Amino acid sequence: MANQKFTKLIVIALFCEAIIGCDSVSPTIPPILFGPAQNPSSVAPILSPSYRPTPSPSISSPDPEVQKPLSPNPYPFYLLPLGQGIKAAYWPSFTGFPASSINTSYFTHIYYAFLLPEPATYRLNITSFDLEKLLEFTGTICTLNPPVKTLLSIGGGGNDPNVFSKMASNKSTRAIFINSTIEIARKYGFDGIDLDWEFPANDTDMSNLALLLKQWREALEKEANITQKARLLLTSAVYYASKITLFVVPPTYPGDAIGRYLDWVSPMCFDYHGSWDRVTGEHSALNDPNSNISTSFGIQSWFQVGVPPEKIVMGLPLYGRTWKLQDPNMNEIGSPAAGPGPGDGILIYSQILEFNNQNNATIKFDKLSCSFYSFAGPSWVGYDDVGSVKLKVRFALARSLRGYFFWALGQDLDWVIPREASNVWGYG
């Protein structure tokens, strides 16, 4: 009982510190700031860095409904038992990072990314490459210590959203898809299934998504009852906010169905800005006082459509976005840019450290966005480092979220960011 009281005091302290912030700023452990209500981005956050979003016409004429300030979090603060919650990461099968190199010490769940449904049949398409990688992943993960849960992720930034749209539009095609996912997940020893449909484009898609989730959850429960095995988990990676402003008429996710049928939902809180913009920006800003393109707004919007905080796992990037400055002397956030910078617009975290070191880059922490940026000559990089990631994990704790996930394994250096994030989550 004494330990429980002590744990509760620690978390309440974190919560209060997160809300009020602090006056002094350290470059490694900055204060949590809560900006004004903000507008969802008109540029898609993506799960696969190989994807390049393009601005939508809705950028110049945002949905007036999204301009309205959000009301306070309708859910009460709750306390996760010490050490519980989700600390997850995606393993991209296509990058060459070996599954045997995964350090499971800092994670509870690892996602395999990705499989795709076959466009004609809607069954999962297992290519020879997929077969090799599935065997590598599942054959390796089960030998690692400490053990972690595994989820099979379907879709990703390179998926054809029309395939998901057509599949979800009919009960029989939904059943074909669902049965295929269960079959493959069981065959290769996964603990769950993750849907990454990028993105439902309209209200019809969203209605069908709700039907898909309901039918999927019922099928998982039925299969578990028949086989007497633990039910497969069901999760989904989603747009960072509950309303997708990629489209001229932004559709809203079915919050009630998500809260009812998913074990958790994973907003992709990154790629708010990139080299498609004409100015520099922080692509995973916690706050943005000038717009609604921020994690704090996105998470709040999920509360407003009825998804409780204990069903939300917040996305964190292990990569940054780069620009070439028009004028090297104008090097702040929002400075004019002439196109992509190093790495053709993207650098993973280990490459950012190398860039900073080799170019003797100037490194800055931005208090408003709770992010870092660096520049050397005309090259500019916006990214998260240890300090800002620790801050964002504290934000997740303060908002009573279920946990966090990283895109992606293999992009870190010596596990420094997952280690520090795990320490914060464990109240360390």
TrEMBL record:
Alphabetically ordered keywords of this record: Glycoprotein, Glycosidase, Hydrolase, Signal
GO molecular function: chitin binding; chitinase activity
Annotated signal sequence range: 1-24
Domain GH18 positions: 85-428
Family of this protein: Belongs to the glycosyl hydrolase 18 family. Chitinase class V subfamily.
GO biological process terms held by the UniProt record: carbohydrate metabolic process; chitin catabolic process
Family annotation (PANTHER family): CHITINASE, CHITINASE 12-RELATED
InterPro entries xref list: Chitinase_II/V-like_cat (IPR011583), Chitinase_insertion_sf (IPR029070), GH (IPR017853), Glyco_hydro18_cat (IPR001223), Glyco_hydro_18_chit_AS (IPR001579), Glycosyl_Hydrlase_18 (IPR050314)
CDD domains found in the cross-reference section: GH18_plant_chitinase_class_V
GO cellular component, one term: extracellular region
Superkingdom, taxonomy of origin: Eukaryota
Keyword set includes Hydrolase: yes
Protein name: Chitotriosidase-1 like
